[in-house]
Amino acid sequence: MVDVLSQNEIDALLAALSSGEMDAEELKKEETQKKVHVYNFKRAVRFSKDHIRSLMRIHENFARYLTTYFSAQLRTFVQINVVQVEQLPYDEFIRSIPKMTILNIFEAEPLEGRMVLEVHPNVAFAMLDRMLGGSGSSPPKINALTEIETIVMERIFSRAFESLQEAWKTVIDLTPRLEALETNPQFMQIVSPNETIALISLTTKIGDTSGMINLCIPHVVIEPIMSRLSVHHQFLSQRKSRAPEEVEALQERVYKAKLPIVAELGESVINVKEFLNLAAGDVISLNKTVDNGLHIKVGDKLKFIGSPGTVKDKLAVQITEIVSEGVEENDE
Questions:
Q1: Which residues pair with 180 in a beta bridge?
Q2: Cis ω on the peptide bond leading into residue 110 (within 30° of 0)?
Q3: In this structure, are residues 146 and 125 in contact, taking their beta carbons and an 8 Å threshold?
Q4: Are residues 165 and 174 in contact, defined by beta-carbon separation less than 8 angstroms?
Q5: pLDDT in tens, 107-161
Q6: In angstroms, rounded to a whole number, what is the distance separating the alpha carbons of residues 137 and 208?
Q7: Angle, helix 121-131 to helix 49-74, in steps of 10 degrees
Q8: Taking the mean position of all CA atoms in its chain, how far away is CA 219?
Q9: Domains parsed from the chain with CATH numbers
Q10: What are 21-32's pLDDT values in tens digits?
């Protein structure tokens, strides 16, 4: 952030330059010298603020989809929200999660590499309890998963990845697939310890139980599509033309749309008394002569000029002139 001097500091600086206490040439040399910034290679910055904002927006949608999915599956109140999106080394992420937790290791074609959806044991066992007919409470002591519990967990989170696919649809069409379910972080090594990851943290509340769900996305996995996370790329994507088949389908629907067409003989203005006294045989004078063409309107827009006639004993109008776009209707 650029420091802004107050008026007193500016006056003091000018006074020092005038009195000779400070040398203007020395100040210029200091300005031109290269400034050294401390850089921690263990915490390499790979995601820009623009990338972080895009990931936040994508996974806010992911959180909403997950809320809907888990609420339907567990038949109880579920609330999931994104807390933060940050970048940190993979090793730091591993050290920050419990020694016994639920680690859903998955791939998402066409991206190459593995990602992790880590679910806190409190949340995971509350889901398991609901799926097995319980009230949704988490046990006081978390033990290793049994074979049946593992199968139930895999089914729950395999379908949860459909929400991730839907959330990323605006950027890329992903096909997430659960590869393995682990409970010990030490047995999970998807990237090198110093590899930068994007960590999306979601706070989760199921009934009275709360905990965290963390989505770990290594930089090396989404590096090929990093440019798509920029606002500029998304703006250009929205302006891309439709595919030919989409245009044809749209044209076909437009061609089948029904439009009201009205041929107006003319207009007239009468007062209420004359209107109330109208009877069969009365004649109303219009504002057009028989030589003037009829105004043919599509909806409320004047599109054609025509002349009246008959076709096979039915009234008809022959189009004699096409009104140019933007021409206003004028009384004749």
A1: 105
A2: yes
A3: no
A4: yes
A5: 999 999 999 999 998 898 888 888 888 877 777 777 778 888 889 889 989 989 9
A6: 8
A7: 30
A8: 21
A9: 49-237 (3.40.1550.10), 258-322 (2.30.330.10)
A10: 666 666 665 555
